[in-house]
Design goal:
Order of helices and strands of chain B: HHHHHHHHHHHHHHHHHHHH
Strand order of the largest sheet of chain A: 2-5-1-6
Helix content of chain A: 25-40%
CATH superfamily of chain A: Dimeric alpha+beta barrel
Order of helices and strands of chain A: EHEEEEHE
Largest sheet of chain B: none
Oligomer: heterodimer
Number of strands of chain A: 6
Number of helices of chain B: 20
Distance between the termini of chain A: 14 Å
Distance between the termini of chain B: 62 Å
Largest interface: A-B, 13 and 11 residues
Number of domains of chain A: 1
Chain lengths: 117, 412
């Protein structure tokens, strides 16, 4: 089994969906997570608070230094992610497609390095 | 002898890489082992003669080389990067396998098909799919692929390395897609083969010889795909389309390299054997009654080549086929080609109306079609302006020379 990161990207200037749509999306995401678990593919999943809640810590000779806000200010930001286990990329892309259809957001699929490598 | 080994190389390289990739699960190892095996053949065959089954010899030798390599690596580095499949290291060592008893002969077809689908995976960028297919299945060197696509060799080498890394790290599978996935996946494979063909056919720039080779290679790969997937009419349709197009190659340019359009071509220069094969293939796939863009384009070519003279072309039939093609692939380029058929059936004025709003202003063929329609309507200054627009966009010398001649012929 390989592991993959499914990263959800949210447009920074986008309107959040209306409450009913959001409710339906949550239900579908719950169902997706249940299916991932049933398939033995679920490793971890999380939705993130918006980037303005972020803090960046950088190493400095005189100790760590921190700044308020995200590392990169972009037109899109990372809104949430899943870590899944899948036998190959096709299987991972299948889950990613479902996630993209539910959220109507682009999903980036990245393979994780094997711990041994 | 070198010639003979060259032929075996062309015919068997892809098969050997495909088999070795299945056995060892690694593209790089498979490629290196197969190259080693051919290098060994170059040393041994001139002395010992060509073995009874050259393909079996190459595969067995390559497999032994790969095992040697893995053992060497294992000695140097006990911690192998990935556990090897049982079939390689366990049980009877394939190193001692009898070359005559070639266990790979059964599933080889599937191996090459697997390799095609891996090389043409939609998660790879289109240029990478083309490069991988030519390199791994066609056995072209990186330098040859680079030359054919007018890309510096280091760029092409980097493209190939990056693509192979993605296959390995992202886990792009080595497998023929399931029946349900085929409608999504087969068009990508067909598009790659057609792209290779068109790169060889359409472009007059670059190394002519390599480019003609590219057409031959695309036809060879399409033939292979048709053998491996006999139930896919679009694969057969693509092969027929390539054969129809390639059959007219000799008539398409003058000895000086000037472009000759279809109506003006010397039909006796067409390759009749290739046309006949194209027709047989086309009839076979159309019988399945699952038409698609490649079958329809092949059918259009068949109607063109069926006519003994340009004047005898069955334009209503061609227009009918373009209607079907436009329904399948509603793209501006298809609409443009359909307009050419409309001009023959309903006149240039009707066709001209169809060109507006296609949004093809950056496309040289659009301007040359428009110029031709305006010329036929006697709107000569406008025709000249359209030829000028086409001239500024035409990518090849042969096309520009043709446009120059036609524009100069306008009775302005």
């Amino acid at each position: 089994m390989k592991r993959y990161l499914l990263a959800l990207y949210v447009p920074a200037d986008g309107e959040p969906p209306p409450p009913e749509a959001l409710e339906e999306m949550r239900n579908e995401l719950d169902a997706l997570n249940a299916d991932l678990k049933a398939a033995g593919a679920w490793v971890f999943a999380g939705a993130l608070h918006p980037p303005d809640t972020a803090t960046v810590v950088r190493p400095r000779d005189d100790g760590a230094f921190m700044t308020d806000g995200p590392f990169i200010e972009g037109k899109e930001f990372l809104g949430g992610f899943d870590i899944i286990a899948a036998p190959d990329l096709d299987a991972a892309l299948g889950w990613a497609r479902r996630l993209a259809e539910i959220t109507t957001l682009p999903v980036e699929v990245r393979p994780l390095q094997d711990p041994a490598a | 002898m070198t010639e003979e080994i060259g032929q075996v190389f062309r015919a068997e390289y892809g098969r050997a890489v495909a088999v070795l990739t299945r056995v060892f699960g690694e593209l790089d190892l498979a490629e290196e082992a197969v190259q080693d095996a051919f290098a060994t053949a170059l040393q041994r065959w001139p002395k010992d003669g060509v073995p009874p089954s050259p393909a079996g010899w190459i595969i067995t030798t390559a497999r032994n080389r790969a095992i040697d390599r893995l053992r060497r690596e294992a000695r140097h580095d006990r911690r192998l990067r990935e556990p090897l499949p049982r079939s390689v290291l366990g049980g009877t060592a394939p190193a001692e396998a009898d070359p005559a008893h070639d266990a790979e002969e059964g599933p080889v077809h599937d191996d090459r098909l697997r390799l095609i689908f891996t090389c043409c995976h939609p998660a790879l960028a289109a240029p990478a799919r083309v490069a991988l297919t030519l390199r791994l299945l066609g056995g072209l060197t990186t330098a040859e692929v680079a030359r054919a696509f007018l890309v510096p060799e280091p760029t092409m080498a980097q493209r190939l390395v990056r693509a192979k890394n993605k296959i390995r790290h992202a886990g792009i599978p080595y497998r023929v897609p399931a029946e349900t996935e085929l409608p999504d996946r087969l068009p990508t494979v067909l598009a790659v083969l057609y792209l290779i063909f068109n790169e060889g056919y359409a472009a007059a720039s670059g190394d002519r010889l390599v480019r003609a080779d590219l057409c031959a290679e695309a036809i060879r790969l399409a033939r292979l795909l048709t053998e491996l997937m006999p139930d896919e009419p679009e694969a057969t349709g693509l092969l027929a389309l390539m054969l129809f197009t390639d059959a007219r190659r000799r008539a398409r340019t003058t000895p000086d390299g000037d472009l000759v359009l279809l109506p003006d071509q010397d039909r006796t220069l067409w390759n009749t054997a290739q046309l006949a094969e194209g027709r047989t293939l086309l009839r076979a796939c159309l019988r399945r009654n699952r038409p698609g863009p490649y079958q329809l384009q092949a059918a259009i070519n068949a109607v063109h080549t069926d006519a003994p003279t340009t004047g005898a072309t069955d334009w209503p039939q061609i227009l009918h086929l373009y209607d079907a093609l436009l329904a399948h692939s509603p793209t501006p380029v298809v609409a443009l080609h359909r307009a050419v058929a409309v001009a023959e059936v309903h006149g240039p004025a009707t066709a001209l109306l169809l060109l507006d709003g296609l949004g093809l202003d950056g496309h040289h063929v659009y301007h040359s079609v428009r110029a031709d329609l305006l010329r036929r309507l006697g709107r000569l200054p406008e025709a000249a302006a359209s030829y000028d627009a086409a001239l500024s966009l035409a990518p090849t010398t042969a096309e520009r020379a043709f446009l120059h001649r036609t524009r100069a012929g306008l009775p302005l």
